[in-house]
Each structure stands twice: as C-alpha cells, then as structure tokens.
From TrEMBL:
The keyword Transmembrane helix is assigned to this record: yes
Top-level taxon of origin: Bacteria
Stated name of the protein: Fatty acid desaturase
GO (cellular component) term, any one: membrane
GO molecular function, one term: oxidoreductase activity, acting on paired donors, with oxidation of a pair of donors resulting in the reduction of molecular oxygen to two molecules of water
Any single biological process term in GO: lipid biosynthetic process
Transmembrane spans: 45-66, 72-96, 108-125, 155-181, 223-240
Pfam families: FA_desaturase
Keywords: Membrane, Transmembrane, Transmembrane helix
Domain Fatty acid desaturase: 71-333
InterPro entries found in the cross-reference section: FA_desaturase_dom, Fatty_acid_desaturase
Amino acid sequence: MDTLLNTKPMTKVTATVPLSKITDDRDMLRMAAKLTRDLSTPNPVIYWTDFLGSAAIGYAALAGAILVSSPWLAVACAILSVLALYRATLFIHEITHLDHSRLPHFRLGWNLVIGAPMMLPSFMYEGIHMIHHTRTRYGTVEDPEYLPLALMKPWSLPLFLLTAILMPVGLLLRFGILGPLSMFSPRLRRLVVGRFSGLQINPRFERRDPEGDFAKQWRWQELGASCVAIALIVTTLTGILPLKAFLIYMGVISGVAVINQLRTLAAHLWENEGETLNITAQYLDSVNVPDGFLPYLWAPVGLRYHALHHLLPRLPYHSLGEAHRRISGALTQDSVYETASYPSLRAVIARLAVNTMRKPRR
C-alpha cells in the first residue's frame, strides 16, 4: 500500500498525454484486486428482487400510461415506466459478465420477463460486450462498442442520440420481418446475423455466427422476440391492439433506448484513436460518476462506476459501490484511480462536446 500511496499523481493525464502512451499502474491494479477479493460473489436475493421489482413497476406504469384518461397522469406513468424498465433492461449487462452457475436461471428469467417483451434478447449483447473488454481490442476497429466520438465532428453527438429514437422500429423490423424471412435465405441470414444481431455502435463490426451452447440460447431467444414482434405487427394492423397502446409501448422502448444512449456517451471519454491500450489507459478512458442521486436513474445497476467496472469487470453490480469506497479510501485524492471520477453527466458530455469542436476532426 505504501508504494501505491507514493505513486506520482496523474491527474487528468488523458487531457495532454495520448492514451496509448500511458504506462500501466500495476500498483493500483494489484491494490484494487486485493481490496475487493471478497466482493465477487453475486447475491441472488439482490439480483432477483431488484430485477423483478423494477420490471413489475415498469409494466404496471406502462399499463397506467395506456389506460388512464388524464394526459398528465399518463405522461407521469410513461416516465416511470421508462425509468423502471430501463433499470430492468440494464441487467442484460450483468448477464454478459455472470458466472451463470452462481445465479442459475437468471438469464432465462430475464429473457422471459424483459428480453422477449422488449424485443431485446440477451444474445444481442452476449458475445458482443466481452469483446469490448478484451485487452487487445478495446478502442480499436475490432471493438463493437467503441467509436472515437471525441475525435469526430460535432454533429456526430446529436446524431448518435437521435438514432436511439428509432431503435424500437429497428427491433420490430429485425424480429418481426427480417429474422423470420432470413430462415429461408442463407444470404439474408448472414446479413441479419452479421449486421442486425448486436447492440453495437461500430458500423464496421460484423458479427460471426453463434456456435455451441450459445447457438442454442440464440435460437430460443430469437424465437421469443420474433413471436412478440409478429404479434405486435399483426394485432395492430388488424385493430385488435389499439394504435394508442402500440404507440405508447413503442414510445417507452424508445425512451429506454435514448436514456441508454445518453448513458453510453458518458461511459467513456471516447478519445482513443484506434490504438491498443493497457488496462490503466482503458480505465482512464472510462468514467465514474460516483456522487449524487441522478446517476442512480441514468446509470443504474452499477453503471455509474463504469471505469471501475473496466478495472474489475467480474464484480457484481451491487459490490461496485463498496469497492469504490474501499479503493478511494486507500488512495490519495491525486491518485490515478481518482482521475476517472467526474462530478456529473453534464460535465462528461460537456467535455466530449468541446473535444468534437477541436481540429483535426474525422
């Protein structure tokens, strides 16, 4: 610990030093692992209670938004539905990191309650997100979840957010039309799997066909989402499902997508130019927003500690707050660890926006 406490401060080093030139702070890595060794076991009670409670509130509020006659009450119900279902949906991130033997049937339960109804099965993230955590792929052209947004033109940021509004339409087309049709066309199937089967933001990333047990998971998850999408299309076109109910449902999914896209903007600094980065550099390109109440709403399920998550990706979400307290308490305020903490969502987005206005731009 003494070695770490005396390390040279690197406050906001990423503002002047390229990420690829940063050396690994091995003392910090060892200390973080040592202090959190007892926090790696997921608590089933917390997981199931949090997930099912969030989903129940979300669906109840959705029903309220559809059924109540008061416009103001309907809007309030819709907002509550978006926030609750957003929280429930973000457990997809936990599913990608879980040792499923420690939390049996959670993936199945999540897909039945959220994945299929929201047309967002977990295979859309599984097999994608772990590439983002790969030591040699983070921030490179092979990373499906990374774009150098800070190096792009200013209009890239609003465009990035606006695309999320159309996400429910895209999911409806993917699972209601393209997915079923691709079963009869190998060429279309390759396109659907490669381009339209992952929550990726890198347009150059192309997904490979699933294999083994994951392929079995993929099949039943896709079947469930397709059944929901086809049912929505058919019942709306035939008038069985009122157009108002359909639009509110799609609007809630769109709201979930927009908040998540905003959170994604604040998850990293997006300043890597495609170079391979070490763990410390990846950490410094990522963001913690540990203080305040609002991060519990826009970055729930532990994602307010996104930089810490990149440092210790195996920690369950309910352990991240305690891990942050332990590590922060063991280090000085000018340590490398504190460099990744920012005061608010606004501060992170403002930094990103300012960086897009600098030249040269992509």
